[in-house]
Amino acid sequence: MVKAFWVGLLAGLLMLTQTLQAAARPDSLADLASQISDSVVNITTTTVVAGNTGPNPIVPEGSPFEDFFREFQDRNRDGDRPRRSSALGSGFVISEDGYIVTNNHVIESADEIVIEFFSGEELEATVIGTDPNTDIALLKVEADKPLPYVNFGDSDTARVGDWVMAMGNPLGQGFSVSAGIVSARNRALSGSYDDYIQTDAAINRGNSGGPLFNMDGNVVGVNTAILSPNGGSIGIGFSMASNVVSRVVDQLREYGETRRGWLGVRIQDVTDDVAEAMGLEKTKGALVTDVPEGPAKEGGMLQGDVITSFDNVEVADTRALVRQVGNTDVGKSVRVVVFRDGKTETLKITLGRREEAEAIPAAQTQDTEPAAPKEMLGLSLSPVTDELTEELKLKPNTQGLVVLDVDETTEAYEKGLRAGDLIAEAGQQKLTSVEDLEDRVGEARDAGRKSLLLLVRRAGEPRFVALSVKED
Predict the structure, then answer these.
(1) Of 39, 105, 131, 290, which residue is the catalytic one?
(2) Is the Cβ–Cβ distance between 200 and 233 less than 8 Å?
(3) What are 263-319's pLDDT values in tens digits?
(4) Which of 131, 135, 200, 311 is flagged as catalytic?
(5) Catalytic: 85?
(6) Is 208 a catalytic site residue?
(7) 143-173 b/e with 16+ CB inside 10 Å = b?
(8) Annotated catalytic residue: which of 208, 242, 451, 468?
C-alpha cells in the first residue's frame, strides 16, 4: 500500500506539473488580439517619381529602324510623365490625440501618408520627426474623436522564450496577426544604438513599423527587419526594443528631432592582449583612441585612457558605452572613471549634443628626425620623412614611425598592420624615432609584460594594437 501511495502521489504531481505548464501557454490569443487591434494601423505612402529621363536611342537617318523607333516612342510618350509610386507598411497609435509610431524607412521621401484604421477609416498623416539611426518615425493624424492606443512595455524584462505577438500589414494583405516567442535579446545589426529583440513570429514585407506585443498587450518592440534569403519570413525577425523606441519618440514628440548625449571620444574594445599590455585585471571597458575637441577633452580625458565606468554604470564594451552616452541627457554632468597609468581616476564631464558635434583632429607639432629604416616586431619601420608625408598624405609635422613593410608570417600581420600605417605611440608614449620604440620594448620586457600597446593610425583613423614583445 505504501508503494501504491507513493506511485499515486508521483502521478498526481506529474499531472499537476503538466497542467501548470499548459496553463503557462495561452490557449488562444483571440482576446488579446481583439483588445489591441484597434490601435494598429496600415500605412500607405505615395511618392511622385520622375518619368523616363534616360537617353533616347540614336538611329541614323534613313535607317530601316527609323520608323520602328518613331512608332515605339509615340506609343510610350506617356512614360516621360511623372508617375506616383505607392508603398505599404504598418504602425500603431500611442496616444488618443493621434500620435502614431512606425519605421522611418516606411515613410521616407513620401509625399502623402494615409493611415488606415482597423475600422476602415482613413486619415492623412503628417510627419512630426524621424530618427534614421534607429529607423523610427513619429506621425500625427487629426481625428474627431479619441483614438484607441497602446502603451510601451519594458523591453528589458522580455526573456528569451516569452510569448510575443506581431501585428501589421504583411505583403499588403491587410490587418494580420502572427505569434511566436522571443528568440534572442540585444541583437545588433548595423547601427550604433541597435537593441533588437529577435523573434520567430512571422514578419514579412509590410510588417515594418508594426508593433510586437507581450502577453499583457504592451508594445515591447517595433518590427523593423528580417533575415531571409528570399524576402519572406523564415522565422528570424528583428524588432527594435521598446526602451530604445520610447525614448526616441519622447524626443521627437517634444523637439521634432533627437537630442543624444555626446562624450567626444573615439574608442575601441579592450581585447585580452590589450588588457595584459596595459595591466588591466579584466578585459572590459572602452579604450580611448583619440580625444578631439569636445566635452571629454575639456574634462581631462587622454588618449589611451580606458573608460571603465560612465555615470555610475560599469562599461562592458564600446557598444554599451555608445548607447549609454546617447541615452544620457545633453548638458548633464557625469562622472567618468578611467584607468590610466596603472590606476583609476574619476573625471567630471558635461555632455554635449551628438547631433551638433564636429570632431576636430588634434594637431601634432613635433619635429621630424630622419633615420634609416629598421626591422622590428616583424615590421620594417622608418621615421616620417618629407617624401613619406607627401606619399601618405600625412598632415604637416606628423610624428611617428611609418610601416614600410610587414612580414606576413608574423603576429603584426595577423593583427592587421599593413604598409602605410603610422605608429604614433608605443606604451602610451609618443614615438619620434625607431630608438624610442626599442626603448619601449625594453621597458615592457623589464616590467614582465608579454605585449606592448601600439597606437596605429591608418588614413587618420586611430586604433590600438598589442604586439608580443617576448624574446625568441
Answers:
(1) 105
(2) no
(3) 999 888 888 888 888 888 889 999 998 888 899 999 999 988 999 999 999 998 888
(4) 135
(5) no
(6) yes
(7) eeeebebbebbebeebeeeebbbbbbbbeee
(8) 208
